[in-house]
Amino acid sequence: MKNLFILLCIMFSFGCKKKNELESKYYGKWELSYTYGGFSGIKTDYPKGNGNIISFAGKNYEMYTNNKLVKSGTFSVVKAHSNIEQREVDKIVYDGEVGNIISLNDNLLSFGMDAYDGGSSTYIKIN
What we know:
The protein has one helix at 2-24, and strands at 28-36, 43-45, 53-57, 60-65, 68-81, 88-94, 97-105, 108-112, 120-125. By secondary structure, the chain is an alpha+beta fold. The chain has a single domain (2-125), classed as Lipocalin, CATH 2.40.128. A hairpin with a 2-residue loop joins strand 3 (53-57) and strand 4.
């Protein structure tokens, strides 16, 4: 019985570590750089200092529009299957509700819909 308890504790600790690793790679402050309209195919660029910011720290997020806080709460990242990409991807969960695909490439953080004509938003790391 004691061995089973120790084994369960070890398994639980590895599970938590992996979950934190998923989320921690997205930590920081990100400013909107451009959006891409799926169906329309139009790319819209945003200047530096535009005030459209999202930040992640610990289990918390904050969203700003024109430098004003518009939403905050908790977030997590889960692995999910993408119907478009036909592979496992990261999806962000805001306040318990699964949202868009989230990906990181160098200093660019992207959020996209899992749909052929879905739009996307890309942020650049500022902190």
